[in-house]
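hey m, so remember when u said the tokens were messed up on ur end? i reran from scratch. heres the input so u can diff it against urs
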Amino acid sequence: MDLEMLIELVRERKCLYNMSEKNYSDHQLKENLWREIASTLKQPVENCKKSWTNLRDAFRRAAKKSVTKSGQKSKNIKKMEI
């Protein structure tokens, strides 16, 4: 699966990840959006969702590791944006 394409397709559909979006709680809309993404990538919906979850979790783990405690020397880390 093309993960960069998956990221772009999800990025264009903010209600899949942004809790402040008004349609974030609309499960039917989100399911339809996942079907669109799966169709574009020619993959099953569940594979797309699983890949997205793995990417999101990896990003969160990496972001958590980059946080320093007060008084620690900061690391040279590039800011990651979605």
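this time it looks ok to me. The chain has three helices and no strands. if urs says something different then somethings off w ur setup not the seq
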